[in-house]
């Protein structure tokens, strides 16, 4: 922002100029809600309701088993993968939408360790990651390491500055989440991948908070494997199947333990020995949840009306505006910005600490401003340019200001499950 | 059947006496279709359409992130597991509906091998199963064996008679599918589990073609682990999440490599070290596909209007009638019964071979009788007592007879994907 935006009218003026403003009508958001939690669960595309009805009533109810062919159920993981690919700099035939992020990470890590188990890197036994990574990524790496035929270990670093030193002669894989779920910090994917390769390690990226949020170019970064989520910024629906990227350079040797029949070269030959299919299909395992999977398409369609450069431009305007307004309008309150001010290091969310962060967030939600909370003290606000307006930002900050100015939050409120 | 049923009127009379006849109205089946493929994809419960609309429009669209708590999304795998439990002789807190059958089998097998890796069985390295098992079960066992810290192997037996000899001093686990997907042969779960235990092995059962199809009593059989499918006889919807059973006796030591955050003792504490939750929750891994998962409940609700003894009684009447009518009405045609005549050894499907099985099945489907085909030569007909009538059986056999009598099938038809 070159000049500070100081009034709601300024925000409305920004909305009037916003080339993405029209896309808000492609979503169905409840009245009276400012939804700043698309980093956790994306809003519902309007098309999703009719699509769910069609999959359930016609494809399942009427066409029954024929839909595996006629409705393209069996090919859906790859078809959706091809639609998602441009958002992360992947090529056709390199992405599948399937299973969960945790499971896809397990496959990618296993494949990376297998690739490293030959040649000069055969002795390497360490997966390097951050202590602040989303826990399930660490848990899956632990689970894999603990069970593999040779003893692997997970090494946790406490800051990005420690990564170069951790990439020692024992480092087999650098596994990072591109944008941190708590802080919104965005790694330099190309530079860290370069460091990993220079050190003889492979780079595995989790794009859970990146896909649909920030521009990603996996090929330009020369990354090795990636996984990600469709139910956050891609608006695929609650718990919608995740994605996995296996670049062509690694497909022929992509090998993982979850060798189910959907990854077989001839799944309906019912052969008793596993033979992986060529291409991204070998990342598949079992039968996919078709209704949830089909809804992913409704989210992806909306991105085809724009591009990630436009999304990113608005995202930075929204997050700059939010930071600026919170710091000016709520000055004097004990709020601490956690998210980087530097654009290149920022995802599409803004996190502030507050000593009573949980209670303040509960008060915000009660007044229709939906963000969420992460221990310790962190209030998270996600900004999704497809459906969030500049006026939304203004209004959210005014409500936050009012809550803080009047101490209108209950510090004794019981803590429920916050997702 | 004590006396042969010889006319359609006899079948209508059976329908009039059928205590389950009223349940057919709980399903929405297309007009003009006799659906005998519920062993592959169960028909759609009427309630599923409204439920899908409610999950998508209200729970996702309106309540958004709050639904993880208010709509019980986070607890759904266990809540549905408790509803499913009585159908397989499981107790509350022992079943979770989650992931895919393939993945759940991977967890169960891994846990079984881990249990066996201590004490007198520590040297055992073999998973015994049947060559005729559903391939993904064999593939997952292969994948696990190939990757584990010590060298395991999968031993395939060619008949049930070979199982006792295969349960040698190297046998760690006996992994069987209770009802065979091609033949409809039903194993004696209690007897084979007893043999496994006597030989020092654990017994892991796949109930994909059993749950909702035949009475199962996992505790009476003293089984060790089980997995199964919700989208066949349980009518949960295409690719709906599968289930896993971990009995209380094994829960404290249930340990598998797919240690994702949904299996953590405190998933929202975001601790960097994995600590499994007590109970069946440790069989969970990543975030589940909520829309598909929610529809499983619509199928389970229907079973609560009856019980598996009533379902089984009608299933045997239906399959007896089908076998009897095919053998009498289509006598002279080269049909071979593959499914056991003995009730105790029969699931809820009937398979017949025919030299042109694929073409005959295609002709049946074209005339509204939907079964399916499995190599080599096998026509499968599934009987789902909740929505299949005795008149359906009569009509299906008359159409089969007409096709065969008139040679009204195209042996040169291209073979598409048959699921």
Automatic annotation (TrEMBL), chains A, B:
Pyridoxal 5'-phosphate binds at residues 101-102, 134-137, 177, 206, 209, 231, 261, 287. The gene is kynU. Its cofactor is pyridoxal 5'-phosphate. One of its GO terms (biological process) is quinolinate biosynthetic process. Pathway: Amino-acid degradation; L-kynurenine degradation; L-alanine and anthranilate from L-kynurenine: step 1/1; Cofactor biosynthesis; NAD(+) biosynthesis; quinolinate from L-kynurenine: step 2/3. Homodimer. The keyword Hydrolase applies. Its EC number is 3.7.1.3. It catalyses: 3-hydroxy-L-kynurenine + H2O = 3-hydroxyanthranilate + L-alanine + H(+); L-kynurenine + H2O = anthranilate + L-alanine + H(+). This is Kynureninase. GO terms for cellular component: cytoplasm. InterPro entries: Kynureninase (IPR010111), PyrdxlP-dep_Trfase (IPR015424), PyrdxlP-dep_Trfase_major (IPR015421), PyrdxlP-dep_Trfase_small (IPR015422). GO terms for molecular function: kynureninase activity; pyridoxal phosphate binding.
């Amino acid at each position: 922002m070159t000049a500070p935006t100081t009034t709601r009218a300024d925000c409305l003026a920004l909305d009037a100029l916003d080339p993405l403003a029209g896309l808000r009508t492609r979503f169905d958001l409840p009245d009276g809600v400012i939804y700043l939690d698309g980093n956790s669960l994306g809003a519902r595309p309007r098309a999703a309701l009719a699509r769910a009805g069609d999959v359930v009533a016609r494809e399942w109810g009427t066409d029954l088993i024929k839909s595996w062919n006629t409705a393209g159920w069996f090919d859906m993981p790859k078809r959706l993968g091809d639609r998602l690919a441009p958002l992360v700099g992947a090529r056709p035939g390199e992405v599948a939408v399937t299973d969960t992020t945790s499971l896809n990470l397990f496959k990618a890590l296993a494949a990376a360790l297998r690739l490293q188990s030959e040649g000069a890197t055969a002795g390497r036994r360490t997966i390097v990651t951050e202590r602040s990574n989303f826990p399930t990524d660490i848990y899956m790496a632990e689970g894999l390491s603990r069970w593999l035929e040779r003893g692997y270990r997970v090494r946790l670093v406490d800051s990005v500055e420690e990564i170069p030193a951790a990439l020692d002669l024992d480092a087999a894989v650098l596994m990072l989440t591109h944008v941190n779920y708590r802080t919104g910090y965005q790694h330099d994917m190309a530079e860290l991948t370069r460091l990993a390769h220079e050190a003889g390690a492979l780079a595995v990226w989790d794009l859970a908070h990146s896909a649909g949020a920030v521009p990603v170019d996996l090929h330009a970064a020369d990354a090795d494997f990636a996984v990600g989520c469709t139910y956050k910024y891609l608006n695929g629906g609650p718990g919608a199947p995740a994605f996995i990227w296996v670049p062509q350079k690694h497909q022929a040797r992509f090998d993982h333990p979850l060798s189910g029949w959907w990854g077989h070269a001839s799944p309906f030959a019912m052969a008793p020995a596993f033979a992986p299919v060529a291409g991204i299909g070998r990342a598949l395992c079992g039968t996919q949840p078709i209704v949830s999977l089909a809804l992913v398409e409704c989210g992806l369609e909306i991105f085809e009306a724009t591009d990630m450069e436009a999304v990113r431009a608005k995202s930075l305007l929204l997050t700059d505006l939010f930071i600026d307004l919170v710091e000016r309008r709520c000055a004097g309150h004990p709020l601490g910005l956690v998210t980087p001010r530097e654009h290149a290091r920022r995802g599409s969310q803004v996190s502030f600490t507050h000593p009573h962060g949980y209670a303040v967030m509960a008060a915000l939600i009660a007044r229709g401003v939906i963000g969420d909370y992460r221990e310790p003290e962190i209030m998270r606000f996600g900004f999704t340019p497809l459906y969030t307006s500049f006026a939304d930002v203004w209004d959210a900050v005014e409500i936050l200001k009012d809550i803080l100015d009047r101490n209108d939050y209950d510090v004794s409120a019981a803590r429920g499950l916050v997702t």
